[in-house]
Every structure is written in structure tokens, then in C-alpha cells.
Amino acid sequence: ATLVRVQRGGSPSAQTEGKLTLLCDAKTDGSFLVHHFLSFYLKANCKVCLVALIQSFSHYNIVGQKLGVSLTAARERGQLVVLEGLKSGVDVFFRPREEPHPLQFLREANAGDLQPLYAFVRDALQPVDSGEAAWRCPVLLVDDLSVLLSLGVGPVAVLDFVHYCRATVCQEWKGNVVCLVHDSGDTEDEESDVLLNGLSHQSHLILRAEGLATGFCKDVHGQLRILWRRPLQPTTHRDRSLTYQYKIQDKSVSFFAKGMSPAVL
Amino acid sequence: QRSPPPPAPTQGSPCGSASAKDSVEWEGRSLLKALVKKSALRGEQVHVLGCEVSEEEFREGFDSNINSRLVYHDLFRDPLSWSKPGKALPGGPLEALRALDKRTVSGPATIALDSLSWLLHHLPCPTLCQTLHALSRQDSCPGDTPPGEQVRVLGLLHEELHGPGPLGALSSLAQTEVTLSGMMGQASAQILCRRPRQRPTHQTQWFSILPDFSLELQAEPPLESQPRSDPHTPSVDPTTHLTFNLHLSKKEREAKDSLTLPFQFSSEKQQALLRPGLGQATSHIFYEPDAYDDLDQEDPDDDLDV
Hints:
With 265 residues, chain A is an alpha/beta fold. Chain A has helices at residues 3-6, 31-43, 57-66, 71-76, 85-91, 115-125, 146-150, 155-172, 190-202, and strands spanning 20-26, 46-52, 80-84, 136-143, 176-182, 205-210, 222-228, 241-248, 253-256. In chain A, strand 8 and strand 9 form a beta hairpin. The longest helix of chain A has 18 residues, at 155-172. With 306 residues, chain B is an alpha/beta fold.
């Protein structure tokens, strides 16, 4: 099964619009999911805003090219807006204080709220009534939210930011929001737990990439658990979760049922 | 002179508050909506303080009869006044919560808080507790408030988001506490009921919520022995396309069972080792000395004074 099929459709449809998808990884690197969604939504002709706090633009571009999209071209034609955290984080300190900056919180003594970051997202994805070809639904991708905790933002502030993105991008503009967060698995890290659980409660769909319990394996890189949290109708719990194992290859990821990797059969 | 206490109702108490604690795995909003539906069908007005979902999403699944009795106080769109022009409720979350107390329409009413977790994250815990206390009018004796004015407060609380302190404080306010969990796809509610001058009662209720948000109570827990085949994935036999043989024929199985393993120490083996029998070949050591070998017949341990 491919991840696209699991999302119930090759392209965003009414059923999959207006949703918050939470990507979460535990004991493994779930960033392959971010790259997947980035190329998926760009190919589907959506207007995408990427808040890239972890990697440089060129990193996403290189991976994007392997998956068949050119981020540079998308940015030039106005389909893609990128906030490159690594670069613009430094700008915050060299600009006059009066000018608001999306990463304003880096300057504050007690990192307050993420309203400037929300304002950036809202301005980037605001549907524009112009003569040019309209993009499909707006999409916000955040990679990732856990780093905001490390930068001193409180978990409630991050939850508020996601709340506002959900209210504006998902509810008002019928777009999608995809965020990556890390599950530290450390029971001592209360902030990370509050963030993860709070986001889980807000999400419609949770994709959780986990390393295998037995450790590293060459042929099975991990396990993906899919949990539909807010279906339109209340259904039984069992219908709402699936588990696949996966292997990341150069240009794609292959999924298979547990224990059914071609390498071990 | 006090009027006799109200008769024990089948579902919750006529006044006071109830909190529903849910988790990521067992969500509680469906139950909240089911209880809201029940109140509305009883003719009560329902006020919902919506912080986590939009009005559209909350009203989804309710028919017009219920929706007409439901007043949604929208704290979802702009709770912190970040938008310009502001779409926020004046005064922010605290004022919105307090305003629920000043309803103009009289009669029995239900106030649903979706969710207490959101309020707890944005208001200081003591303030929230005081406001909730005032809202559910717990300080008045049940007999003093006329039945028509009684208010029921339902709160949804996400258990994993709070520490034991705030959870304990909110628990002490609620007369009825419902904790959601489940087993094998069937949801259950652990109900703890605290009534004045009575001992707390504890019961477990299995239930399911139908698509139209009717609450269906189940008498028994799900049977554990029921194997349910998953309709989505056909069961696959992993032994069908193997390149090696996993099965044993009868003869092979017999041979396997009768084999004694080399390191299995049985009494026969012990005897055989102690007494080398005639049938066993005695072992010989053949040694061919090299030209450079120094064969010294003397025992090297002789000079030890042991």
C-alpha cells in the first residue's frame, strides 16, 4: 500500500480538506513524511507555506527533486512560501525592534506567544482575489514543532499557534495543516508530553513513525501507525487505526503489512 | 424547613457539575455531544462554550430541533484576540465563562464546557475553579433552588494534559466524574458519583454512541474470546509462498522426537561415561615428535614442595 492510497485518494478531496494531520516520530526520524507531504501537495497544485525550522531550503529542495518536484520553481511561481528558520532566525537580531518578525520570540526574555508567526502564515496563505490561476486549498507544513520548545516557547503557546492555524487555514479556508512533532519517550519531559497530547487531541489524523522495538533493521526501517481521530461519524475504535511497516528507498517509501517485508519472506 | 432531597435520577444529578475525562485513544467529545443532545431533547436550553472546535463542527450530526436549543459561545475562532478585525468574544475567555452565568432565559439549562482543558491552560486554576463553582451553584442547598432554575454543568477534560494538582482540584468540584476508556473497540465509562450526605458510588458502564449522537447503553462488556475478522484486510497465510519447507511429515516428526540431543544428560549417558564399556573404542593419542621437540620425561611439577 502506498501512503497516498492510505490517505483515501490521490489528491486532496472534500473529505481530506480542512484537516490537521499530525506527524509524530518516536525513536526514529519521521522527516520522510514531511518530504512526502510537501511534494504531494505541490504536485496537487496547492498553495503551500513551509515553516522550515530544522533544515535549510536546499535540503528540502534536493529531496523534493528526488520526489519529482522543484521547490525553487514552485517558489518562483508563487506556489510555495518558505520561512527558513535557520537563516531568518539570525535576522531577528539585526533588524530594528519595531519591525515584527515571525521569529520575534527569539528576542524576548520570556518567549511569549507565537502571534507573529501566525501572522506570517496567515499573510502567506491568504487567498488572493486576483486574475491569476487559483491554487487549490492552502496548506501549512511545519517542520517541526518540538524545536520551538527547545527555543523557549511554552507548550501552551505552541498549542495556541496550532489552534489559530487550524481556525484560519483549516476551518476558514478549508485548507490543510501538517505538523511534525517528536515523541521523546522521556517520561521526565512534561512539556513535550503536553505538546504531543494536546496536538493529538486537536488532530484529525495522526501518523506515527516508530522505530522497531527490536532495533535497527536494514530492510524494515520502522513502523507507521495511522490513527483517524476525528472521523465525521463516531465509529468504533478498531476501524480507526492501521499499522504498516516501511522501508525508505532513494526515491520512494514502500509500505507493507507487519511481518510481510519482501526481505524476510 | 427543608424540602426533601430530590429523587435520585437515572442519569446524573438535577443540578451540579459533571466532568468527562478523556484521552487521545478514547475521545470524549462524542459523549459530550450525546449528553448535550439528551438535555436538548428534555426541553432544556444548552449553552456550549466552544474552545476547541468550530461551531460548524460541533453542530454537525444534530438535527434542527436540537440545534435550535443550542447556543454556541464561540471561543474557537479568535480566543486570544489575535485577529484583526477582532472576532473575539469581549473580555476574553474568563468573561465568556462568567457570562454563561447571566443567562436571560430562565428554566433548567445545561452548560457544556468544551473544554475544561483549554480553560485550564489559559486561566489560573483557582480562578477557573471559583468561576465553575459559581456557575454550578453548589453552595446552595438542593432544596433552596427551585427545580426550574437548576443548572447542570458538563465539562470535557483531557486527562493527559494536566498534572495531578489541577486534575484533583477540578475533580473535587464535580459531583459526577466520568472517565472514558474501553476495550476491544467498545467504549466504557467509569462513573464516580458524589452526592451530599451519601457515600460516593462507583460504577462502570459500557456504551456506544450512534451516528446521530444517541447514547446506547450496553449491559455487558465485550466478550474477550470473540475473534473479529478485520473487514478491510483479508487474512493472509504467510506460509503460502515460501522457498523453504515449514511442515514435517509423520515419519520426520517421529525421527525428530526420538532423537537424543548431544548435550542432554540422562542417566544412561552418565553410566556410559563413568564406565567405558567394551563396545566403546578406547581412545589413543598418536604423537609424532618433530626434530626440534624437546622430550623431557621429567615431571615439571617435581620441584614443587606441595
